[in-house]
Amino acid sequence: MIRLTQIMAVSAAVCWCTACAVNAQEDDASGSTAQATAHMLLRGINVKTLGAVGDGKHDDTAAFQKAIEMTGQVEPGDDKYFDPKAILVPPGHYRITAPLLIKHSRRQTQGAHRGIKVMGASGGHHRWTQLGPHGNPDLYTELFWDGPEKGTMFDVWGTHSMHISNLLLNGRNKTAVLISINSPRGAGSANHILRNIELVNSHVGFECGNDSYICSSDMSFYDVRWIDCNTAFRTVSDQNLNYNFVRCGAANTGIMFDFQKGGSAVITLPSTYSVGTFLRVGSGGINAGTFTVNGCRLDGARYRAERTVVPDAKGETNVVFSGLLTSCTGLWPKTNEDGTKGPPPENTPMFVLGPHANVLVQGSMISGNVAKLTGSDDQLPTWIQFDNCRFRVRSDPRTMIETDEASGYELRNCVVTTDDGQNIMVSKRKAPAQEELTDE
Questions:
Q1: What distance in Å separates the CA atoms of residue 396 and residue 360, rounded to the nearest whole number?
Q2: Domain boundaries in the chain?
Q3: Which among 130, 324, 344, 377 is most buried, taking Cβ atoms within 10 Å?
Q4: pTM, whole model, 2 decimals?
Q5: What is the rounded average pLDDT of the residues 260-265?
Q6: Residue 25 has what pLDDT?
């Protein structure tokens, strides 16, 4: 165990917001001021005291790995504001050339890196740092990859309760994965929290990586943004359960959420711009197949050839959308230089459902081609239901839901705005086995 007095430089690693506490009154009988002051005076292991420079040129990998290895090994002594699990990363641009390993340890009851915190100053804005250390380095904390092609920046194995906040992670189009969470045999990985993070320019942003029967579960994501990634969030292990996403967004990304073996998630107030697929579910099952999406806004890119697919789901999967808005962006013909209109963009179906998927959409506003459903020969149908929804621009569910004999849909108290501006109340049902559409 390392004593705090042995690394005085670490004890000086006061968080950059301590100046806010200078005038705090410590004699507040309620204790609220003291608690706020304690938070602002949080001290931890500062990577700059371990050799990191953050100038975009120096290789800072060793300093970060050393900070990771020191977590849990430092005795705070009498300093009640020192958190031995906290790694502080001041503003700057940190060059990373090898994976940062955060691992499980059987030698300690709590695990070597259990509860580790990696805390920057701000997630930043990727357009200021996409091609190098542009912008004001005093404001943002960027870790960028300058290692081998198809590398991994954070390689996490079987640990629990990791917190990562206020960072910009930039793969520079060279990383396979920016944050990889793995569950080795006999050691799951869970209870992680990401807050105010940008993950940019990577094949995959965040991945629960290895193909394992052990779950990677119980994780929360707050204000996380994925930009210029092929896939934003992906799970490939079994029983990917209890994910919570709040105010997360993606732009210029192929797939935002990819659950290859099913899972369960609650997604609240997400937003997208120019995303190919919002939610893809490869399969489901008795323990892994429920998804709830609340207050979602999906914007297509202007004049993009294809619209965003809202869910691309199959297997024993149930998805509920409440308050979904699919904007009309990208549904209009492009204006040519001579003022004439070009052909209308391809109107991709927004809901693509494979065998056994079951989707409910309620209280939502839909624009564009509605759905394509494909069933199977067994007894479990593919089904979608719209309750109290409004269909606006180039969107008529009476003619824009494609089904087969093993799939069907129902419209309950929905409003369709026709091309000539009329609003029509519609309730219809098309059941599997080729039952005819009927007015209720």
A1: 17
A2: 244-332+343-440
A3: 324
A4: 0.85
A5: 89
A6: 34
